[in-house]
Structure formats: C-alpha cells, structure tokens
Amino acid sequence: MVSLPKFKIESTHNLEEYLPSLGLKTAFDTQRADFSGINGTVPLYIGKVLQKAMISLNEKGVEAAAATAVTILASSTAEIPPAFRADHPFAFFLVKSKKEVLFSGTFLGGE
Description:
This protein has 111 residues and is mostly beta strands. It has a domain at 7-76. The chain contains no helices and five strands. It comes from Heterodera trifolii. Belongs to the serpin family. Residues 2-107 form the Serpin domain. This is Serpin domain-containing protein.
C-alpha cells in the first residue's frame, strides 16, 4: 500500500539569467535582436521569459501543468496602440491555426 499526503507545488522561474549562457544572447539585446519575421517595421527584442509549473496530488489524482511566457518589446518608440481593458469575465483561446487550439479557458475575475 502506498500512502501520500495531498499537496500542491507551484514554481515560477525567470529564465533571462539562464538563456544567454545557453546561446540565446542576441535575442535580449535591444540593438542586435532580429525579429523582423514577426514585425518588419519595429525593431523587437525579448524583454522577459517566465516559466511557471504546478503539480497537485489529491484523492482524485494528479494534475500537472507548465507554461512559458515570453515578453517581446519594441526597442524604439513605436506608435501607442489603442487601450483595451478586459474588466469583466471573458473566454480566451491560444491557437496555432484555425483547427488547432493549444490552450483555452475562461477568466472570471480575481488574480
């Protein structure tokens, strides 16, 4: 028989300090980064890379998830986009193509 306690572990890691030592240096450089394939008019660079992971174990089973977020910033002053404020519940979808949904969810409020 195996007996385990219920637990939930979450972690968040800032990857900017590790990625340059793995060879990803110019992507963080405001002058040398080349993301012209994303936006050919405004010079872009990577500003932040966060990775979050979670594992939860309870009487119903195990749940695990991981996500990585990359913030791409403009290295020059660009036109300010119109303001958008989602201050109410909404649904969201992260899609790769019209037929491939990678993540979906709803935001009901809170943090």
